[in-house]
Write a structure and sequence with these properties.
The chain is α/β, with parallel strands linked by helices. It is 40% helix and 21% strand. The chain has 14 helices and 18 strands.
C-alpha cells in the first residue's frame, strides 16, 4: 500500500451503508469522502482518490438486476485505475447482490492485475459487524443471535433472506469458489489461519470467508492475510460491511513515522512573541527562528533542514516518549532582537518564503497538523499548498479558528489559523493543544 497516501476505493451497495463504512475509515484517521451517485460524472473517482485516502462511491446496486449491479461495479473499479485496496461494501445482513458485485470486483481487479503483472487477486469476506450484533459462526451470519432466515428478513419485500450461509449467498448468480475458515481455526491463532488459507488457495479457492465473533477476531484474520500478501504476492479484494475492510487496510498500511505539527509564524507583534516564548517552555514544542539568507529573507533550504533535525527526536524509539517533540514552530521573529527594518519588497517576500518552507516540509516530512499565525502567512501557505480553502469546524478563541484544509496536496490536514494580534500568552498553547488532540483522534 502506498507509503504517503493510500488509495482505497469503497464501492457501496447503498448510500447509508456506504456512509457508515466511510465513517469507520474517517474515525481511524484516514481522510475519507463519499460520492453520492454514479450517473453524471460530476466527480472523477480517480481524481478523488488523488485527494483522499479512502473514497466511497455509492453504486446503489443492492436492488438492481444482478447483471446490472455487476456491470456497474466493474465500471467503477476500472474507472478508478490504480488503487491499493478495493472494498466491495455489502449489507450487514447480506441482502442484495452480494455475489454478483463481489465477483465483478474480483474479475475487474484480476484483469487489471494481469495487465500490470501483479500477483494473484483473491476475495476476503469477513461479514461480521460485532458492534451492531452481526457475527459469523460456522460460515453462517447471525443477527442478534438468530439466523437471518429466522428473523423478519425472511419476509423482506425486495431481498428475502432464505439462508444464512455466507458462501451460498456469494455463489448465488456467480461462479465463485469459496472456502470458509471456521471459528475453531480462528481461535487457534494466526498460524492455523495461515495454513488453512494456503491449503484453500492451493485447491482453487477464490474467496476466503471467515468466521468472527469479535473485533479482535477480525483484526487477527486481517493481519494474518496481510502478512500472507507479502509472502505469496497476493492482492485481496475485501467483501464486507466495513470492519473487515478497515482491519485489512490498517494491516496493509506501512508503519509510518510519528508525525509532527508544523507551526508557521510571520507575525512580529509583541503578543505573538509572548505566545512563542510560552510555547518554547513546553518540552514537546520547539520554536525555531527561520534561517536568513544574505537578503535577510527566510532561507528555505536551511530552515527546512533545521526543522527536520528538530523533528527527528519525535521519531525516537526511546521508551520515554514524554519529552519527544510533537510540534515545531518556524517564526521570523522570536524575540525583540530579531526585529528588522524591512523594505516593502522584503515584507511581501517573507510570507512567500514561509509558504515554500511549509510546502517543502509537507512533501518530505510526516505532518499531523498545521498552525499559522498572521493573515498574509496563512493565505500564502494555503496558496502554496494548492488549497481551495478551509473546512471550518471550531473557534478556539475569537479569531483563532480550527478546521481542515480542503483541496491541494494537504487536503484533510487539520489546521488552526490565528491573527498576529489575537489572544494572550497562552493562546498558542490552546491552538497547539487542539491540533494535538486532533492528531490523536483522527479528527479536527
Amino acid at each position: 500500500m502506498s507509503q504517503d497516501s493510500p488509495r482505497i476505493l469503497i464501492v457501496a451497495d447503498d448510500l447509508t451503508g456506504g456512509n457508515a463504512c466511510g465513517a469507520l475509515f474517517a474515525e481511524a484517521g484516514l481522510s475519507t469522502m463519499t460520492i453520492t451517485g454514479t450517473s453524471g460524472g460530476e466527480v472523477s473517482v480517480s481524481a478523488a482518490l488523488d485527494d483522499y485516502d479512502a473514497v466511497v462511491v455509492n453504486a446503489n446496486s443492492r436492488h438492481l438486476k444482478p447483471a446490472e449491479a455487476a456491470a456497474l461495479t466493474d465500471a467503477l473499479i476500472r474507472e478508478a485505475g490504480s488503487v491499493d485496496l478495493v472494498v466491495c461494501r455489502i449489507d450487514t445482513t447480506l441482502r442484495g447482490n452480494v455475489g454478483p458485485t463481489a465477483e465483478a470486483a474480483l474479475r475487474a481487479r484480476q484483469d487489471l492485475a494481469s495487465t500490470s503483472g501483479s500477483g494473484r487477486v483473491l476475495g476476503l469476506c469477513i461479514p461480521a459487524f460485532p458492534a451492531s450484533g452481526r457475527v459469523t459462526v460456522g460460515g453462517q451470519q447471525l443477527l442478534n443471535g438468530k439466523l437471518l432466515e429466522d428473523t423478519e428478513l425472511r419476509n423482506d419485500v425486495r431481498s428475502p433472506m432464505l439462508t444464512s450461509v455466507v458462501a451460498d449467498i456469494l455463489r448465488a448468480n456467480t461462479e465463485l469458489k469459496c472456502h470458509t475458515v471456521e471459528l475453531s481455526t480462528v481461535l487457534d491463532g494466526a498460524e492455523a489461519i495461515r495454513a488453512e488459507v494456503l491449503t484453500a488457495l492451493a485447491t482453487g479457492a477464490e474467496v476466503i470467508v471467515a468466521d468472527a465473533l469479535t473485533n479482535e477476531h477480525i483484526d487477527l484474520i486481517a493481519r494474518t492475510l496481510a502478512d500472507l500478501n507479502q509472502e505469496e504476492n497476493l492482492e485481496w479484494v475485501s467483501i464486507d460491511p466495513g470492519p473487515g475492510s478497515l482491519a485489512l487496510a490498517q494491516a496493509l498500511l506501512p508503519k509510518r513515522e510519528p508525525g509532527i505539527i508544523l507551526g508557521v509564524s510571520g507575525s512580529a507583534t509583541e503578543i505573538t512573541r509572548t505566545q512563542l516564548a510560552k510555547l518554547d517552555e513546553d518540552p514537546t514544542i520547539t520554536v525555531l527562528r527561520a534561517a536568513l539568507d544574505e537578503d535577510y529573507l527566510p532561507d528555505v533550504r536551511a530552515t527546512v533542514e533545521h526543522v527536520r533535525t528538530a523533528a527527528s527526536s519525535a521519531w525516537s524509539t526511546s521508551a520515554n516518549e514524554t519529552a519527544s517533540v510533537r510540534a515545531v514552530i518556524v517564526a521570523t521573529v522570536v524575540d525583540a532582537t530579531d526585529l528588522l527594518e524591512l523594505t516593502d519588497e522584503q515584507s511581501e517576500l517573507i510570507p512567500r518564503r514561509l509558504a515554500q518552507i511549509a510546502a517543502e516540509l509537507m512533501a518530505s516530512t510526516a505532518l499531523t497538523g498545521l498552525y499559522t499565525t498572521g493573515g498574509d502567512v496563512t493565505a500564502a501557505v494555503l496558496g502554496e499548498l494548492g488549497a481551495l480553502g478551509m473546512e471550518i469546524q471550531a473557534e478556539i478563541v475569537p479569531l483563532a479558528v480550527a478546521g481542515r484544509i480542503v483541496g491541494g496536496v494537504a487536503t484533510g490536514l487539520p489546521i488552526v489559523t490565528k491573527g498576529g494580534l489575537i489572544g494572550d500568552a497562552g493562546t498558542g498553547l490552546l491552538c497547539l493543544g487542539h491540533l494535538m488532540q486532533s492528531s490523536e483522534s483522527g479528527r479536527a
